[in-house]
User: What shape does this take?
Amino acid sequence: MPGALVLAGSGEFTPAMTRVDEELLRHTPGAPPAVAIVPTASGLEGDVPDGWIARGVAHFRALGCAAYGVRVLDRAGAEDPAHAAALARADLIYLSGGNPGYLVATLRDSPAWSAIVAAWERGAALAGSSAGAMALGGSTPVRRERGADALATWESALGLAPAIGVLPHYDRWGRERAAPRLAAAPAGLTILGIDEDTVVLGVSGAALVLGRGTVTVWRDGASRVYRAGETLPREAVALP
Assistant: This one.
């Protein structure tokens, strides 16, 4: 049976997420759980991936886990058998933030992604934050132009949750700036606007909101806001 799935709006490896991750670990196998930190989305950002690994390892070790980094930073890394083996033995795999388009292109149809999916299907937990969460949906907005306000186009993502698209940092963007992305989304896609330091935790098909903010569910042009402790409707979210 597939394991828990976390879609985070931001905040990975920070104190704001400690209680969220404690709840996630309740649904994670292993004693102690083996946690793989995967910074692929920031693979084009110099030393940033090593920073993600350092923070992720420290965060989860403080929670009693056996945490380690897996430096899948490019296509060669995604095809490295040693990296695939490190992912295959994990009880929790965490994809940190960065560039969602680069993350999708690097992992798609690779041994690393196959190892991640196989681990999740056997019961390991899988978490993605910001770009990591965006890449797990059916489609993701990808900005190909420069500038913070350049319009993103929606492209095929990794498809673990094929009916979903994720807009992270939703409280920072706001409805007005998010509107063009929502309007450009593929027909039939349910969009989750996830605030910073907030997650959707999917366990056995149910989706629970945790953290300090809210999750705005957009479906067929209408929206509804869900707060921490509330459960998203199965028919709207359709988590695997």
